[in-house]
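Hi R.,

As promised on Friday, here is the backbone we talked about, encoded as structure tokens. Could you run it through your design pipeline when you get a chance and send me back a sequence?
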């Protein structure tokens, strides 16, 4: 197998409904950058990334420029020696996890094609499906209940409620959704918006109604996060505090949280995400594989990671569902809130670009 070409294509992806997150303006679109690697024997491997200043603090123009520089190098790289090829690209990419993610996924897809194995089996193959939550954006209680009910009718049994703007209103929203859907699993993601005291008050008020509270306090305040974890009756997970293996090791070694959320799109791809999960597993804390607003190709990569490891106990992989013009043709299936992988080699997706 020999690489003969690497193409880079940016795509502006529109959301059906603007996303509302704590501390950011509404998000109505995101920039995705697709990578296609073509081999001499006619195979195509696909990678993808997302660049957005409010989702992963990366500017689309800069990520695109970096990807174009890297694409020139790809035909000279080994198609299946991932450590070697990604190390070569890292010298050009430097501090852009988004750009690294695009090429990381393409090379893992290529490796799966060469091995004639789906990526989730290549990475470990612990299971072939996982249940995912669906996200409820920041909204008033009545609207939150309406969205939750609609998602329940679509088959989702796990709901992730975005919060962090107003702790009292977040409590009211969770309680209202719990009353409407008492048998659903509820998660609350504060996106770092609470003080230590507010986080503990929310956790105590919602004991028995929440499965977990994700990133309750400022991502940079690890002492505060540790205090919340030690005193909370609800499971505490870190999200934005996890920036890669080094930060995951710091969180795990200091027992800062009970679990870690890892996103393939923000940590630099599967290679990095596998290291984060290995650290969590060694520290005996749980892993959740999560996502940002992203195309189904990235969801397929996150799903491959989630299915590969017994330490991944939670899935939050719904970031493609509100995109209007995702060019990905996914191989995985979503049925009644369960994501099931296909046995198509690699990431199992094709991309139809205009």
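Update: got your reply. Pasting your designed sequence below so it's all in one thread:
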């Amino acid at each position: 197998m020999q690489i003969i070409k690497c193409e880079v294509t940016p795509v502006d992806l529109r959301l059906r409904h603007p996303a509302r997150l704590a501390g950011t303006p509404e998000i109505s679109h995101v920039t995705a950058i697709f990578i296609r690697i073509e081999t001499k024997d006619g195979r195509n491997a696909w990678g993808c990334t997302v660049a957005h200043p409010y989702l992963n603090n990366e500017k689309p123009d800069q990520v695109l420029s970096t990807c174009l520089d890297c694409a020139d190098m790809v035909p000279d790289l080994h198609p299946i020696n991932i450590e070697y090829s990604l190390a070569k690209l890292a010298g050009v990419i430097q501090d852009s996890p988004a750009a690294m993610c695009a090429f990381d996924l393409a090379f893992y897809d290529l490796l799966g094609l060469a091995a004639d194995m789906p990526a989730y089996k290549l990475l470990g193959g612990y299971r072939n499906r996982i249940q995912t939550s669906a996200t409820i954006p920041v909204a008033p209680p009545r609207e939150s209940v309406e969205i939750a009910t609609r998602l329940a009718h679509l088959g989702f049994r796990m709901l992730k409620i975005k919060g962090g703007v107003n702790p009292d209103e977040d409590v009211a929203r969770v309680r209202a959704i719990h009353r409407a859907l008492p048998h659903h699993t509820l998660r609350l993601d504060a996106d770092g918006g609470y003080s230590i005291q507010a986080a503990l008050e929310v956790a105590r008020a919602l004991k028995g109604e929440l499965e977990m509270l994700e990133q309750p306090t400022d991502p940079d305040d690890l002492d505060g996060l540790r205090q919340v974890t030690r005193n909370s009756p609800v499971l505490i997970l870190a999200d934005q505090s996890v920036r890669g293996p080094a930060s995951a090791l710091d969180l795990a070694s200091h027992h800062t949280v009970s679990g870690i959320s890892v996103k393939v799109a923000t940590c630099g791809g599967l290679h990095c995400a596998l290291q984060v999960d290995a650290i969590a597993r060694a520290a005996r804390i749980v892993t959740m594989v999560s996502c940002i607003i992203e195309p189904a190709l990235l969801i397929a990569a996150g799903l491959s990671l989630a299915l590969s490891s017994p330490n991944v106990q939670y899935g939050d992989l719904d970031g493609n569902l509100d995109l209007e013009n995702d060019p990905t043709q996914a191989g995985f299936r979503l049925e009644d809130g369960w994501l099931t992988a296909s046995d198509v080699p690699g990431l199992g997706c094709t991309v139809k670009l205009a």
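One thing I noticed while checking it: The chain has two domains: 3-116, 121-351.

Thanks again,
M.
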